[in-house]
Write a structure and sequence with these properties.
The complex is a heterodimer. By secondary structure, chain A is α/β, with parallel strands linked by helices. Chain A has 11 helices and 12 strands. Chain A is globular, with a radius of gyration of 23 Å. Chain B folds into 3 domains: about 5-220, 3-Layer(aba) Sandwich (Pyruvate-ferredoxin Oxidoreductase, domain 3), CATH 3.40.920.10; about 235-420, Thiamin diphosphate (ThDP)-binding fold, Pyr/PP domains (Rossmann fold, 3-Layer(aba) Sandwich), CATH 3.40.50.970; about 510-615, Rossmann fold (3-Layer(aba) Sandwich), CATH 3.40.50.920. The chains are: A alpha/beta, B alpha/beta.
């Protein structure tokens, strides 16, 4: 991909996407990695820099556009998805990215998130999920685990967390994926897939807040246990995981089970379920592993199908209306209906 | 057969009142159409319940359409009707008190049965009440029975036959006022193209009503209202919501910008969404969003990417849009927000008119967040107000509110059709190159207007970031410094103040100096002007100034107000413009504040003026 040039035949590099603004996230924040990988991926997408538009809401992650040397809009809390929808519909040529967080997208902006997903406007949503409110200094978020003790919940939170990928699937998203801030190559590959997907792409990025929720994903990122606790999904490949690559997902009468290919003589690789990113039932099952201690957390593209794209349907209506009624003639419209002359 | 007299009158007010299902709005609008084509000046006031179908026969379910037509220039739908069409007892009960003394009542006698009388709270049938008959001219007609008879050999249900009774009433009024039935017959045949039996039934009912007037000896007079001497030109009848849609579309056409409308259905603003949605062949993109916030947010996004972006709502929706308005002010993006005001607070009176969102429009945001507000004065003026709002938005890079209301939205008047060549230009200059040394400075302002440049995504070299955080002057970078914030707040305020430089001089109707100035804004124009004319006829030194530009106020207004001994501000709220005027000009203005869900009556203004003048 690196040899693809943009329309101006200028080869872009990561540095072309870096602004002169000082990045002000806390040292050690997972956001740095995501920013860097995004800046690495964009030059390879074959899109002129001026056609990128990053739109964010409010929260730590939403400062992202200030650090991207593209068009950007740091908007208001929760509304990035709605603002991005208008921006994309008004100018479908743009590559529009929504940068949001767990509070921004799932709490105050939950309504806009689900409706963007069901409309399937070609926008890429990057949801930085750190399972805490960082910018307001450490209250629990809609993805914090039940019983989370924070400043606003000294006796523990009372609400069950959203599972963002399940919410997205339930909202009829056409592309649902998950990645982790500590996996730079994986982020890059998911961002490229999200970009390539036509329709709304929902990417949940597990991101560590080392100040208010440090270690939230320790069991998924610590080298000692990460491979046992995560499963990297690849379309058409058997679902194998574990540090010894010996564990697999098996369906026993439609109930998922983990099988051990090394130690259980009754099973073979043929018993391992093959990932099919177009299968909504499997996708829902995989997503449900998320908070389940008995199963590995799925990483990668959980679901990806082609669905009608809103802005294309809108343009089709415009074309059809012009074909049927002729291109709008405003003087004629003004003078339509019952008119009369006063002499 | 006694000869029927023709009485010549200057103006007539008819109120059609009936059950929600009786088709009163349709009856009223058909009469309006014929009257407009005949050449009268007119003004209408539809007034219907918020419930789609309140219980039949109940007072809550009465739907009303009032029409004022005249051989002279008129400004209001009229204070009191001369004719009340009452399709059931509830309609009579709720509206009799407004009828002019000795006014005409036309009632559907069949609907005055025990059940309906009870629902309306009558102990006895008022049509048989001798007292009522002595005070008014009553025509009680068995409309349901008559239409059932004329539809006898048509293949429709008896229910469908009964439903044509509104056409009977319409036909009778056409006869009374010498109106031609052709337009309505054509309209019926077009509307029921696929249901010829229904079309036939309605046409028969209409004719039956017309001939009923002609052949029975119930009526001693018909009325002639001469054509009005309107300025020459081509006219159509138009209501405010439709005029608003056309104004937005006209601005898009003139500016060459594609029109984007993001909105959420709300009474009484939804018709703007509906009409724009039908203009896909103009390239109009309407987006019915998931909520009011998303509606304006999508419009802000579309504005950033270079469309002429707008949204329309009513008070409760406006409240939800408030934070996004602040963003548009901070990001300095052009945007038009139409607020079709209704009775408040909260859900309030969804279908009734009010002017009580003035404070909200002018002041209702966090921070010092000024923005221009234009209030159309008549239904037809909504076209120009919407157009002008777009002009200002693009020129000054700011959101602009069009403060319409329920009366303007649904009311209608004859409208001289404008020519696009006469409409002022809307110049759009997207930034295409650096405006600083080797860089693009998104907040480097035009020296005259203080507007910042509009560089849209997709333009090479001009990549920049907008946002709701305070901007550094010129560069647009995030900046929290105290001096910068003070300077930016000043610049934003000055930019909006500059909008007033473009206003035409404020017109004074009457004398430049005098005893009394009636100061109106928005839809109170009509009653204000009518009251002024009536008072002038009594040789009183009463004058009228109307404000279309409610924020910023016209620069010359302060000087004008000082020339009068008294200033009276009638408005459909509890003194919002009054507070603004008192605050801005430190004058002891008087208020006339009525919030009855209807336009203020001119007679009330007349009475208040006299009281103040001690007459």
């Amino acid at each position: 991909m690196a040899d693809i040039k943009n329309n101006n035949s200028i080869e872009l590099s990561r540095m072309d996407f870096v602004t002169d603004q000082t990045v002000k996230w806390c040292p050690g924040c997972g956001d740095y990695s995501i920013l860097k990988q995004t800046q690495r991926v964009l030059p390879d997408l074959g899109i002129p820099r001026e056609n990128f538009l990053f739109i964010s809401g409010i929260g730590c992650s939403s400062r992202f556009p200030y650090y991207m040397n593209t068009y950007g809009f740091h908007t208001i809390h929760g509304r990035a998805a709605a603002i991005a929808s208008g921006a994309k519909l008004a100018n479908p040529e743009l590559s529009v990215w929504v940068i949001t967080g767990d509070g921004d997208a799932l709490s105050i902006g939950g309504n806009h998130t689900i409706h963007l997903l069901r409309r399937n406007i070609d926008i890429n949503i990057l949801l930085f999920n750190n399972r805490i409110y960082g910018l307001t200094k450490g209250q629990y978020s809609p993805t914090s685990e039940l019983g989370k003790v924070t400043k606003s919940t000294p006796m523990g939170s009372l609400d069950r967390p959203f599972n963002p990928t399940s919410l997205a699937l339930g909202s009829q998203a056409s592309f649902v994926a998950r990645t982790i801030d500590r996996k730079p190559k994986h982020i890059q590959s998911i961002l490229k897939s999200a970009h390539a997907h036509k329709g709304t792409s929902f990417v949940e990025i597990y991101q560590n807040c080392n100040i208010f929720n440090d270690g939230a994903y320790e069991n998924l990122t610590n080298k000692k246990v990460a491979l046992d606790n995560t499963i990297e999904l690849k379309h058409g490949q058997p679902m194998i995981f574990g540090k010894d690559h010996n564990l697999g997902i098996h369906l026993d009468c439609n109930v998922p089970k983990i099988i051990d290919l090394d130690n259980d003589k009754n099973v073979s690789i043929d018993d391992v379920l093959v990932h099919d990113e177009k299968d909504i039932v499997r996708a829902s099952m995989l997503s449900s592993f998320t908070y389940d201690d008995d199963f590995p957390t799925p990483i990668g593209i959980i679901y990806a199908v082609d669905e009608p794209i809103y802005e294309n349907l809108l343009q089709d209506q415009i074309d059809l209306a012009i074909e049927k009624q002729g291109k709008g003639d405003f003087e004629a419209l003004l003078n339509s209906g019952n008119t009369w002359e006063v002499k | 057969m006694p000869k029927i007299k023709i009485k010549h009158v200057d103006h007539v007010v008819i109120r059609f009142a009936g059950d929600s299902g009786d088709g009163m709005q349709l009856t009223g609008s058909r009469f309006t159409e014929s009257t407009a084509i005949f050449g009268n000046d007119l003004s209408t006031l539809p007034d219907y319940p918020a419930e789609i179908r309140a219980p039949a026969g109940s007072l809550a379910g009465v739907s009303v359409f009032q029409l004022h037509f005249s051989s002279e220039d008129i400004h209001t739908p009229g204070d009191q009707p001369d004719v009340l069409v009452a399709m059931n007892p509830a309609a009579l009960k709720g509206h009799l008190e407004d009828l002019e003394p000795h006014g005409i009542i036309i009632a559907n006698k069949n609907a005055f049965n025990n059940k309906n009388l009870k629902l309306a709270g009558y102990d006895a049938n008022p049509l048989e009440d001798g007292l009522l008959a002595s005070q008014y001219e009553i025509h009680a007609i068995n409309m349901t029975e008559l239409v059932t008879k004329v539809c006898e050999n048509i293949d429709i249900s008896s229910k469908d036959a009964e439903r044509t009774k509104n056409m009977f009433a319409l036909g009778l009024l056409f006869w009374m006022y010498n109106r031609n039935t052709d337009t309505t017959i054509n309209w019926l045949q077009k509307k029921f193209k696929n249901k010829p039996a229904i079309a036939e039934a309605n046409v028969r009912a209409l004719n039956a009503g017309y001939y009923y007037g002609d052949t029975t000896e119930m009526f001693t007079a018909r009325y002639a209202v001469q054509k009005a001497t309107l300025p020459p030109g081509k006219y159509r009848n138009i209501n405010g919501n439709y005029a608003t849609s056309l104004g937005l579309l006209a601005a898009a056409e003139k500016s060459g910008l594609p029109l984007f409308f993001g909105g959420y259905p709300i009474t009484p603003a939804s018709e703007i969404l509906h009409s724009l949605a039908s203009y896909r062949n103009f390239g109009v993109k309407t987006f019915q969003a998931e909520d009011e916030i998303a509606g304006i947010s999508a419009a802000i996004g579309a504005s950033f990417t270079g469309n002429l972006a707008c949204t329309a709502t009513s008070g409760p929706g406006m409240a939800l849009k408030t934070e996004a308005l602040g963003l548009a002010i901070m990001a300095e993006l052009p945007l038009v927000i139409v607020n079709v005001q209704r009775g408040g607070p909260s859900t309030g009176l969804p279908t009734k008119t009010e002017q009580s969102d003035l404070f909200q429009a002018v002041m209702g945001r966090n921070g010092d967040a000024p923005m221009p507000v234009i209030a159309p004065s008549t239904p037809g003026d909504c076209f120009y107000a919407a157009y002008e709002a777009c002009q200002i938005a693009v020129k000054y890079m700011t959101p602009v509110i069009v403060l319409s209301d329920g009366y303007l939205a649904n009311g209608s008047e004859p409208w001289p059709i404008p020519k696009m060549e006469d409409m002022p230009d809307i110049e759009v200059n997207f930034a295409t190159d650096y405006n600083g040394k080797d860089q693009y400075l998104p907040y480097k302002r035009d020296k005259q207007t203080l507007a910042r440049p509009w560089a849209i995504p997709g333009t090479p070299k001009l990549e920049h970031r907008l946002g709701g955080l305070e901007k550094e002057d010129i560069t647009g970078n995030v900046n929290y410094e105290s001096d910068n914030h003070h300077a930016m707040t000043t610049l934003r305020a000055q930019k909006i103040a500059n909008v007033a430089n473009d206003y035409p001089p404020t017109k004074v109707y009457g004398k430049k100096k005098g005893d009394m100035l009636i100061l109106t804004w928005g839809s109170t124009f009509g009653p204000g002007r009518v009251a002024t004319k009536r008072l002038n006829k009594e040789n009183l030194n009463v004058n009228h100034v109307h404000l279309r530009y409610v924020n910023p106020l016209p620069i010359d207004l302060g000087g004008i107000l000082k020339e009068y001994k008294y200033v009276l501000i009638p408005e459909i709220n509890f003194g919002q413009m009054l507070t603004i005027i008192r605050g801005q000009y430190a004058i002891d203005a008087h208020g006339l504040n009525v919030v009855r869900g209807r336009p203020i009556r001119a007679s009330l203004i007349v009475d208040r003026v006299k009281k103040i003048l001690g007459i």
